[in-house]
Amino acid sequence: MESVRAERIHRAVFGHAKIVHVLEGAAHIETATGIHELTPGYAMALGAGMWCSGRPDPTVRLWTLYFDESFLRSHMRWVLADTTRVRPGVHPDAWDGSALVLQPGVDILHRIEPLWRQISLVNETAPPEVATTRLISLFSRAVEIALPTLLADDGAVPERFVLPVRGRLAQPPIARPVRRSVVLLRSRMTEPWTVGRLAAEVAVSRAHLTRVFTQQVGVAPMRFLIETRLTEFTRLIEETDLPIADASRQVGWNDARVAAVWFRKRFGITPTQYRRHPHPSCTGAMPCESCRGVCALTPVLEPVTRAVSRDSRRDAHIRRLS
């Protein structure tokens, strides 16, 4: 899940393992082992049941992925089978779940970001079997890109294997029209964009922009705009006291019902419920034992059937700490 934060992130403990990637800005993440400064190009893994809090400096754009920890450890054991080639502390048998900070670098994270974006959307329409297979496939591709970060210097991936011979992962750096389009959609998200208007702004054809943008960003231009608006709308709901209708208009949705529909698609609850319980107390039991059946998430809780989760509110059961 992509997020942009400008206010302190309260301390919470998650029922799933998570990996945080910082793309822009910076944040100080506090865990049981200390305070970790994450700047662009840094990543941090944290095991299930481990608390963390954060302070953006002054803002941060990041991706957070939530995993069933048994799946994550099992998958990485297969990938990192030769422990002698792995960086100290990275192999799942050497990791105790405490904060593990790595520096893949901005280039690697930018190459992985389209895969995270596809992961965040894959469960919308696909049957669960197809969705799970797709999620595992996308995650495996991301791990392949990140391999140089995981291996010791003397076990580095040979240069000819860093990129596969075929496929999207072998694509060149982001094309200028795509890069410009991303900047326009983020900086002017309130405007009534169409693909035609965006293509005219960057001086390419609609067909070419759609094809290259989808290849290099992971989604089509107008879906990227929706996700950008939704990320900022979520920040406004959590960090400000703006009425929901005003927050909706501030990101380019004049009808708050449109914002509510997309918000429910991402989080499974309404913006009002989210604002009331930004860090709900849920154990996953049905009925929920912690909140005695009154938690806003009770109607939408479902068994964890996916190995890789895109949603911290529905699948990573959170317990806010005092």
From TrEMBL:
Transmembrane segments: none
GO molecular function: DNA-binding transcription factor activity; sequence-specific DNA binding
The keyword Cell inner membrane is annotated on this UniProt entry: no
Highest taxon of source: Bacteria
UniProtKB keywords: DNA-binding, Transcription, Transcription regulation
SMART domains in alphabetical order: HTH_ARAC (SM00342)
Annotated organism of origin: Agrococcus pavilionensis RW1
Coiled-coil ranges from the UniProt annotation: none
Span of domain HTH araC/xylS-type: 179-277
Name this polypeptide is given: HTH araC/xylS-type domain-containing protein
Keyword Nucleus: no
